[in-house]
Amino acid sequence: MKIHIPNSVFLGNINHFLNGFDPSEPDHLQITSHPKWFWVHPVVLCMIAAIGKPVRPENVRFESLARTKHYLTRMGLFDFLGVPPDMEIEEHEEAGRFIPLTQIRTSDELSLFLQELQPVLHLQPEDVEPIRFSISELVRNVIEHAASDEGAIVCAQYFPNKKMIRIGIVDTGIGIRETISDSYPVSDDLMAIRLALTPGITGTTNKPGGSEQNAGAGLFFIKTIAYVNRDPFVIYSGNAMYKLLKRTTSSHATLRANPFEDRHSKESNLPYWQGVVAGIDIGLEKTKEFTEILGIIRNFYWQTIKEKKKEKYRLKKPKFV
Amino acid sequence: MKRNGNSSITINVLAQAGTFAENKDTARDIRREEILPALEEGKTVVLDFSGVTSATQSFIHALISHVIRQHGINVLDRILFKSCNDVVKNIVSIVTDYMQYEEEPTEPTES
Predict the structure, then answer these.
(1) Which of A183, A230, B12, B43 is within CB 3.0–4.6 Å of A206 for a Cys-Cys bond?
(2) Integer Cα distance of A20 and A15 in angstroms
(3) Helices A125-145 and A290-309: crossing angle, nearest 10°?
(4) Amino acid A212: pLDDT
(5) Per-residue model confidence (pLDDT) at position A308
(6) Chain B contact for A130 (CB, 8 A cutoff)
(7) pLDDT tens digits, A275-301
(8) What's the complex ipTM?
(9) Lowest mean pLDDT among A40-44, A93-97, A126-130, A173-177
(10) What residues are paired with A267 via a beta bridge?
(11) Contact A218/B99, CB-based, under 8 Å?
(12) Residue B6 vs residues B13, B33, B35, B43: alpha-carbon distances, Å
């Protein structure tokens, strides 16, 4: 496998990086970078860690890494790959800056990780709400659907000056297409991603309302959080990638069931990724109150049901006491 | 779980799921071991969310969707959601709404 790290990879320009990924020869990993400097989104580090972890350390080669490779060291990449960083690193306090590469394999490991999220990032309780919600839903998807002993690889970086957190969550499991095709006919990876982002679609059943444990709403919620807050969201599996683009400032936040009706870009001929790659940015300064976002989602479901029934009636309401 | 005489039980969600209720395995256990048996006995179930600051849709779905499917939507007359903040209220409402997606309309209620 070969991965080249260019100057800068963020969700907006990640296509170029993904197109340069060579998944052939999975027993070997060669990593090169721009010779002077680079900055990459945490999702890129998760991808390198996920594919590099099963590779024997003697088969991992770093070539012409930029001086800024200390970033890779601080995020824990060399530890993950079992190779020495070949440089001295001055240790800094981790809190308030980043969550290094972390492997989460079980439900309990996820719960522990989420408990430590707020103190590690030094965030206000209201700021951490959409972050832990998104991480919880994405990682639980991996634990429940990826069928991989390796679980999810997660890392994140917080940028206090921009009040922005960038998050990557990656697995090397069976991928979205195989998961969804258990319940729905799927012709390609892009169609599988579209279905996975559609509310009410889950790989565990084709019944409306989902199964006992799955509703097919988790990814729709995450896409909605990103859409309402005008943040980018990327999901890549197999040969396909869907990227939710920022909603224009003038447009009203109107939720749509079909993700292809949102402002987006997509690709269907990328190098094959065995598993799922998810990247999300959450800008805390412009983040709407989480309750407001939930209200928008609630209204969306209500409208959807009303249109389907085509008649006036009242839904049964839960009793809050 | 607290028994309130013979007619209802109160389930302390915080004690089992923590302040951020997201562990679906915990939700499943509460559903199977406490909610469903109590309903089978004809009791009212009080889900006490005191101290729970947030929950995921997945947690609430795992907690109540199968209960609604098994007993019908009117089971909501016998499940009380106590001390929910706005986040939890919204998520509970989203789940109960979408669980009625394919249900026949129910009689209007005053609740």
Answers:
(1) A183
(2) 9
(3) 50
(4) 73
(5) 65
(6) no
(7) 999 999 998 876 667 888 888 998 888
(8) 0.84
(9) A93-97
(10) A241
(11) no
(12) 21, 17, 15, 7
Higher pLDDT, B61 or A97: B61
Query: Whole-angstrom Cα distance, residue A262 to residue A36?
Result: 37
Handedness of CA B72, A195, A241, A10 (dihedral sign): negative
Contact between chains at A316 and B18 (C-beta distance less than 8 A):
no
Q: How far is it, in rounded angstroms, from Cα A20 to Cα B79?
A: 54
CATH topology of domain A97-309: Heat Shock Protein 90 (3.30.565)
Contact A208 B92 (CB under 8 A): no
CA distance to partner chain B, nearest, from residue A305 (Å): 6
- Over residues A54-78, the mean pLDDT reads 82
CA dist., res. A305 & res. B97, Å (int): 8
DSSP codes joined into one string, B16-52: HH-SEE--HHHHHHHIIIIIHHHHHTT-EEEEE-TT-
Which pTM value belongs to this model? 0.88
Single-letter amino acid, residue A35: P
Q: Which helix (H) or strand (E) holds A264?
A: strand A264-267
The per-residue pLDDT for A232 is 93
Mean residue pLDDT of chain A comes to: 86
- Pair A128, A66: CB distance under 8 Å: no
Sheet hosting strand A152-159, strand order edge to edge: A98-104, A152-159, A164-171, A273-283, A233-238, A240-244, A264-267
Beta-carbon separation of B28 and A212 below 8 A: yes
